[in-house]
Specification:
Strand content: 15-25%
CATH superfamily of one domain: Glutaredoxin
Radius of gyration: 24 Å
Number of helices: 17
């Protein structure tokens, strides 16, 4: 059995460390005896409401469910399925993030919204279904710290964080018998990782003398790889690395030195995952070093899925400002304008990671439906760095067949970025039937002024 974290180093003597059996360290936690490989959700979205849930896949990419019933006159039930071999970590966005853990084979009904969200199933207890929702009402959840931190005086932030941690762990121990061992262990480490990551940041900012001792303790925890599938484990590794190897993000040597240090410091699952995210950091921050470190990664990483992800997403080169559609056909900007000659064209520059972009997708579909019988075309252009993230997002948001979809995988520094000065997302362009850009900063899809502009251009 792997070593458990030495809790005696933390001022929480009332709590004994969890010492359950350790599952295999894969991107998802296997659930013994369960033959099903997905979680099925039924979202009962109240009229006039919008629900937003998200989770991270094994490559660290955010996947979203944006369930928009804002313009409907009655409640709507929407079904979603997520493949997993074990535990699935899902977040609900309401003020602060509210996490959930579900097991492979679960069928979950989620209804209501905002602070009265209800989560239920036929086989799980209410506490197991909505642990962190109930924890918020009991005196405070560890996940409230992020949203409340700036409202609290600096000197009071660490005591506040400690109190949220104690309350979260105490509430978990009270309800241990009402949940499965896998769910209990998952919640346990979700709380612990969130607490330690926030505490490392706080001690570092304060130059607190307790930081080295906590770093030593976290070293042992990270190397134990307990519940390493959790997103909090990745964030803890990132924060740990910043304290251990520096925070000078603008320095090219920071990102390459971080990669080299990880390669020699960690091993096994943690090494593979940490190297993967370090390589992504090199690609995003110092792309001139990426080719050399990609070759190193293929030699250093023993996880074939991670190596294949890099090959599939970063070895395809797109020259200039070429666009790719879902069938991998090449287009250039002029092709898009030419094929829509005689139509009013609305261009939507977006990305899978951009929450405001994704929040407009239901409004975009409404706009498309409203003008579908008129000379009007809606064109989505993704600036995602990987095709995988783009494809997942357009499937999740249901826009695969309702409009033209393209991706520019080398958008940063491209001619399009410079020509239209697209330095933030979302960004919208409105083009008339002759191919002239009449509004380089067009209103977003929900804006009523946009519809008037489109109508005026169509009627010219």
């Amino acid at each position: 059995m792997k070593h458990c974290f030495p809790f005696f180093l933390l001022p929480l003597l009332f709590l004994l460390p969890y010492r359950g059996s350790c599952e295999s360290n894969t991107a998802i936690l296997p659930f013994a005896g369960n033959k099903n490989s997905e979680v099925v959700f039924f979202f009962n979205v109240a009229k006039g409401k919008v629900q937003r849930f998200y989770f991270f896949d094994e490559f660290g990419s955010m996947r979203q469910f944006i369930l928009d019933n804002k313009n409907k006159s009655k409640d709507t039930v929407i079904q979603k399925k997520v493949s997993t071999n074990g535990l699935l970590e899902v977040y609900y966005t309401y003020k602060e993030k509210v996490p959930f853990l579900f097991e492979a084979g679960d069928t979950i009904l989620i209804s209501g919204g905002d602070s009265i969200l209800s989560v239920s199933s036929q086989v799980r207890s209410n506490v197991a279904n909505s642990f962190f929702l109930q924890l918020r009402k009991s005196g405070g959840s560890i996940f409230e710290y992020e949203g409340q931190m700036l409202t609290i005086k600096i000197k009071d932030r660490l005591p506040y964080l400690d109190s949220l941690y104690r309350n979260s762990m105490y509430f978990l121990t009270l309800h241990k018998d009402s949940m499965s061992e896998s769910i209990y262990k998952g919640y346990f480490y979700m709380i612990l990782y969130e607490y330690l990551q926030r505490k490392l940041v706080r001690l570092s900012v304060d130059n607190d003398p307790a930081l080295p001792g906590l770093m030593d303790s976290v070293t042992g925890l990270i190397r134990s790889e307990e519940c390493a599938f959790l997103n909090g484990y990745r964030f803890l590794i990132d924060t740990y690395g910043m304290n251990k190897w520096g925070r000078d993000f603008k320095s090219p040597t920071y990102h390459t030195a971080r990669y080299d240090s990880i390669a020699s410091f960690f091993s096994g699952y943690t090494k593979n995952r940490a190297l993967f995210f370090a390589l992504i950091g090199i690609k995003n921050r110092v792309p001139e070093y990426f080719a050399a470190y990609r070759k190193k990664f293929y030699a250093d990483c023993s996880d074939s899925a991670l190596r294949n992800y890099i090959r599939e997403n970063f070895e395809t080169k797109v020259v200039g400002t070429k666009l790719l559609n879902q069938s991998d056909m090449d287009f250039i900007w002029e092709d898009v304008l030419k094929k829509n000659n005689g139509k009013v064209v609305y261009i939507d520059f977006w990305a899978s990671w951009c929450l405001p972009c994704r929040a407009e997708m239901s409004n975009a579909k409404s706009l498309i439906n409203e003008f579908q019988s008129k000379p009007f075309t809606y064109v989505f252009i993704s600036t995602d760095r990987t095709k995988t993230n783009w494809i997942n997002a357009i499937k999740d948001d249901g826009i695969t067949g309702v409009a033209e979809n393209y991706i520019i995988t080398n958008f940063a520094g491209s001619a399009l970025e410079k020509q239209f000065e697209i330095f933030s997302l979302p960004r919208y362009l409105l083009i008339d039937a002759e191919g002239k850009i009449v509004d380089p900063n067009a209103p977003p899809p929900h804006n009523t002024n946009l519809r008037r502009k489109i109508e005026d251009l169509i009627n010219q």
